[in-house]
Design goal:
Length: 333
């Protein structure tokens, strides 16, 4: 008898304890948080930095970050399916082609995955930005104008005559942010009096250094009358490829001024060379915000159902050999 009462008591206490546990800790029943971070060019230092700061968010919150390079549409689709199979709840993506936007949205939905885009805003079949996917990118046009202003200041400091300066725009116009960035730079130069006829487009096949090198070579071959050049493009790689092409023709830092966009290792390595090259500067943008904040936003979306801002555009600051340490410190890098 005593035993029966005792065992009943134990059983009811256990049930109560279990209920309390079940009610108060719903997370125990849920899958652990897993977030994908998919980037189009895993070998590019900018994307390595984004991953680094995304890892910081994962470390702080204790979730798993799955980093996948997605250089083409096929790999991207496989990566999204793979994330679903691994029971991830969402992913951040910089897609290899923004026109894959509708496919990304559909595949994510089908797999019940939340999605945030970073750097390159996804577009639909008619070329419109997909507003249902939260996005963090850079203020392309304004940052481009900063590039143009930086080039103008340096032209002035050297006493070059604007009408005698050639301007090379490394173009990758199928990517809207690339178009906006280079347009901003070209507009700033033209507004200051650089003749429109002095601006030459060099179309890149991809957004890497080699494609820029090839594209710039073609323009340098055709346009031989300019002794002074300014060069700009969507990122540091575009400008570095152009600077290398110029060097191949004997055009060095006294003849060429290049300003990139990014400011990660690609730029820092160049600044670390003992002799200054024609890579004069880079508008530093925040890989920390783009990597850490997007991932953190995704985490909060998953765990607190807090929808991220529809669009966030981040700003940049011109960084040169001289001020690199201070500018990076201001960015918390
Ligand atoms: C695009 C470019 C990258 C980087 C990023 C912010 O994705 O391709 O190089 O500039 O925007």
């Amino acid at each position: 008898m005593v035993r029966t009462i005792w065992s009943r008591l134990v059983a009811s206490t256990l049930t109560a304890a279990f209920c309390t546990l079940a009610v108060n800790s719903p997370a125990l029943a849920a899958d652990p948080v897993k977030i994908g971070f998919l980037v189009k060019q895993a070998e590019e230092p900018w994307f390595q930095d984004e991953w680094h700061y995304a890892e910081q968010a994962a470390h702080e919150k204790g979730f798993t970050l799955v980093k996948i390079g997605v250089p083409n549409g096929e790999k991207m689709m496989a990566a999204i399916d793979n994330l679903a199979a691994q029971k991830a709840q969402g992913f951040v993506i910089c897609a290899p082609d923004v026109k894959l936007g509708t496919a990304v949205e559909r595949t994510a939905k089908r797999n019940n995955l939340k999605v945030i885009s970073v750097d390159d805003q996804l577009i639909d079949g008619s070329g419109k930005a997909i507003s249902s996917i939260p996005h963090m990118g850079i203020s392309g046009y304004d940052i481009g104008k900063q590039v143009g202003q930086g080039l103008l200041n340096e032209i002035k400091a050297r006493g070059w005559v604007l009408s005698e300066v050639g301007a090379m725009r490394l173009a990758f116009d199928q990517l809207p942010t690339a178009q906006q960035r280079t347009q901003g730079a070209a507009d700033a130069l033209k507004a200051a009096g650089l003749p429109a006829a002095n601006v030459f487009d060099a179309a890149q096949a991809k957004t890497d250094t080699e494609s820029a090198f090839n594209a710039a070579n073609i323009v340098f071959t055709k346009q031989t009358k300019f002794k002074h050049w300014v060069v700009f493009g969507l990122n540091d790689e575009a400008v570095l490829g152009t600077v290398r092409a110029a060097e191949g023709r004997g055009l060095r830092n006294d003849a060429v001024i290049g300003i990139g966009i990014g400011g990660s290792k690609a730029a820092l390595n160049e600044f670390a060379k003992p002799n200054p090259t024609a890579f004069y500067g880079s508008v530093l943008i925040s890989s920390k915000r783009h990597g850490y904040e997007t991932t953190m936003n995704m985490y909060k979306w998953i765990t607190e159902n807090k929808l991220p801002a529809a669009v966030t555009f981040t700003s940049g600051v011109l960084m040169t050999r001289q001020n690199q340490a201070a500018v990076r410190a201001d960015f918390g890098l």
